[in-house]
Design a protein that fits this description.
This protein has helices at residues 3-20, 29-38, 226-238, 287-291, 310-318, and strands at 42-46, 57-62, 68-72, 83-85, 91-100, 105-110, 134-139, 152-163, 178-182, 195-198, 203-207, 211-212, 219-220, 222-225, 265-267, 279-282, 298-302, 305-306, 325-332, 335-342. With 348 residues, the chain is of the alpha+beta class. The chain has a 6-stranded antiparallel beta barrel. A 6-stranded antiparallel beta barrel has the order 7-8-9-14-11-10. Strands 18-17-19-20 form a 4-stranded antiparallel β-sheet. A hairpin with a 2-residue loop joins strand 19 (325-332) and strand 20. The protein is globular and about 65 Å long. The N and C termini lie far apart (50 Å).
């Protein structure tokens, strides 16, 4: 067997072991109590994905005894066969109740005919913390837990509460507000939707997606503050939610730097207010043809940005710069397919 193939799984195991084990001598009694308190309130989510660069799992945290779960808004939820595993290994089907894409937030609910009476986080406390606060991060990174195994626990420190600029050359985020930037490597595959807490048990935020600075090629570890998310969580759970998308929000301004045709895509005629972004034709020999995209594929995400219409697709492609890598996720029948494309040089 190739030596490189042997080394890779060994390195992964070492990394996972280091992530899972928080040294006991670094934790006081309150921290150990926080871990015991948090673990039953974390869940593992399994849904769409499982293909190249598209993970079919994520993390969530219970926000009601009836089984409401807050998690990250991602392609994992784009399926009719969404399942959730509790800390004790019980598995339930779940459904998406609502989402606020601008906050990268979704609320799902367990399907059960019986009263569950589950342990949950009180998100209404809206705790905050400043730089230097020690934190614990909880998540199902790298899919370390599939049954009754505990999720991973990392420890670290808040570096700052600040905004991550949403612009090309910086960070690709749907969310535009403040985040907690931490010095622990929290934002791993599958970790999004987990939580960070203070050592003494205060819920601070939800772990965000994997985000990289396009200029420096460095990853950032951040969480969305719970005081920002709590209002939308409460509204979705109580059924009184009005998404910012429904508040007469104007269609996005379309930048003409790049168009779908520059990648080999011909979209269906844009005749409705929000025409779904279905592919009409794939140009032979183009990037998308080589990547395997097909007519009738529905584009649902561009760089983790939800694509609501052909206009939204044109707007997101228009933000790209030459030399960037763009990631498309399309729905093909009941499957999600992810591809990565290289942005071509601008035409002069």
């Amino acid at each position: 067997m190739n030596q490189a193939k042997l080394i890779k799984p060994i390195l992964i195991c070492i990394c996972l072991l280091g992530a899972l084990l928080v040294p006991v001598h670094r934790l006081d009694a309150s921290s150990r109590e926080t871990i015991q308190y948090a673990l039953p309130r974390l869940v593992k989510i399994f849904g769409a994905g499982g293909v190249k660069n598209l993970y079919g799992y994520s993390t969530g945290f219970l926000v009601s005894p009836e089984g409401h779960i807050a998690t990250i808004w991602s392609p994992v939820l784009d399926t009719d066969q969404l399942s959730v595993v509790l800390h004790d290994g019980r598995r339930y089907e779940a459904e998406v109740l609502g989402a606020e894409p601008h906050l990268d937030l979704a609320i799902i609910k367990l399907k059960s005919e019986r009263d569950l009476n589950l342990p949950y986080f009180n998100y209404e406390e809206k705790a905050t913390a400043g730089a230097g606060t020690r934190i614990l991060g909880f998540s199902n990174m790298f899919r370390v837990a599939t049954g009754d195994e505990p999720v991973s626990v990392l420890h670290g420190v808040i570096e700052a509460r600040t905004d991550l600029p949403r612009r090309r050359g910086a960070f690709e985020l749907s969310y535009t507000g403040d985040v907690y930037v931490v010095d622990a490597i929290t934002n791993n595959p599958g970790a999004a939707g987990g939580v960070i807490m203070t050592y003494d048990g205060k819920l601070l935020g939800m772990i965000g997606k994997q985000v990289r600075n396009a200029k420096t090629n460095t990853w950032v570890n951040y969480s969305l503050p719970i005081d920002v998310l709590s209002k939308s969580i409460r509204q979705i759970v109580t059924g009184k939610f009005e998404s910012s998308e429904d508040q007469n929000e104007p269609e996005p301004t379309i930048v003409e730097r790049y168009k779908p045709i520059d990648f080999g895509l011909v979209m269906v005629p844009d005749v409705l207010f929000r025409t779904p972004a279905f592919i009409d034709t794939v140009l032979p020999g183009s990037q998308v043809a080589q990547a395997g995209l097909k007519p009738d594929d529905l584009v649902v995400f561009v760089n983790d940005e939800l694509i609501k219409s052909c206009k939204t697709l044109k707007s997101e492609l228009g933000k790209l710069e030459a030399g960037d890598t763009v990631r498309l996720v399309v729905r093909r029948e009941n499957q999600l397919v992810a591809v990565e494309l290289q942005v071509p040089p601008e035409k002069k």
